[in-house]
User: Fold this.
Amino acid sequence: MRIVCPHCGERGLQEFLYHGDATVTRPRDGGAEPTPEWTDYVYFRENPNGTHVELWYHNAGCHAWLVVTRNLRNHLITAVETAHDVALGRSS
Amino acid sequence: MVDKYSVFSVLREALRGHTGWRPAWRDASPTGVYDVIIVGGGGHGLATAYYLAKNHQRMRIAVVEKGWLGNGSIGRNTTIIRSNYLLPGNAPFYEFSIKLWEGLEQDINYNAMVSQRGVLNIIHSDAQRDAYARRGNSMRLHGIDAELLDLAALKAKVPYLDYDNARFPIQGALLQQRGGTVRHDAVAWGYARAADRLGVDIIQNCEVAGIKTENGKAVGVETTRGYIPGKKIGLACAGNSSRVAAMAGIRLPIESHALQAFVSESIKPLIDNVITFGAGHFYISQSDKGGLVFGGDIDGYNSYASRGNLPTIEDVCEGGMALMPVLGRARLVRHWGGIMDMTMDGSPIIDKSPVENLYLNAGWCYGGFKATPASGFCFAHLIARDEPHEVATAYRLDRFAKGYVIDEKGVGATPNLH
Assistant:
């Protein structure tokens, strides 16, 4: 598997670290009591058998966090964006 | 017709040209309403059906399997059994499993080649020796056998390790002698045959496409071979647990990951035990055919593709070479991947689901094989009696919300534990 980093171009898997599902969003801090939102965020995952949007970190490259869209059945990557751009798009 | 396998049946069939053997199980088709439908014809599903039929009230049981029987993880693992667990929620369960393994072949009248050849966890540092001493003590408190071997004892047992490795010198090992290996396919076949003899319908090439619910209760499964009504439905779908549970609207604390395993060419007997590397993730044993069977980490990212990537192969082989350089002379013949249902605390789930009459057996990470008999036994108990078996009370689905995670490794929520 190879990932096309927006900054560095196509690179081998060894350069990247995986950080899982990019669609979960961290809830606001809400006191000492555990909330269903936090349980969901920390533990529960969609785990789809198909297209997965996920976070990768270009550890041996530009150190950018990337949001990668990949098919879990054949590892075909259809989109790579920087997490920075994705976050800006989400907030605007 | 041969019903029971024995020395006498083998001799008798040898004398009459092996004409009396019959198929080990019927190729059943779905008929009528079942009391229990088990989704997943792997080790855990078949064991569940067997113990349901054997231990509980009379009922009609079906096992539905999307492919052929035992084509998932039960036929893809590295065949190791052990109960060297630390935590109270885990140790009694896995020890129960070892005890079931010890009596399994007589129980199901099938040669599963259970071999208690011993599992060695190699120690490489003072801190690791303390940790393994603690683990060994915890095991002995749970009534599990454990022995801390010093350097001399380990050298006498396995002389071919790299004891003077500059980076990972070896200090000793924790030994569980009652651990070992089992012929994995034979476990699926043996349970299937034994369950079939007790009247269980094993329905192959029957993929579940939906779970039908009425008023919040599961009432049957839609399959590629038509609708099958069932009063209770048990899911034992391993790597596909999230997919199948999603059909009933249930979200699980599970990610599916690919795990690779490897076999070398056959060589003369070299490795008598199961050996695990303590400084990296690598474990190895030798099959009866002579191949060295080994494995290591999962690939590390979500996957439903039953194949792995090269970096993990390199990593596993590097671990092997650091432990026993003799491996470098053996050629790798095969490697393959399986899909693991990785939970966020590395421990499984055997529990009722939020949908009534739907039961959940999932999240075995990559330690499911050793648990096969106990998993089946406890899941059958849960389905038949609607209460957990006493050794499986910790494997609740709500433990994640309530803070009772069973984090054997002590590292928090991450889907790469076992």
Summary: Chain B has two domains: 7-83+85-110+184-253+345-402, 119-181+255-343. The CA atoms of residues 46 and 191 of chain B lie 6 Å apart.
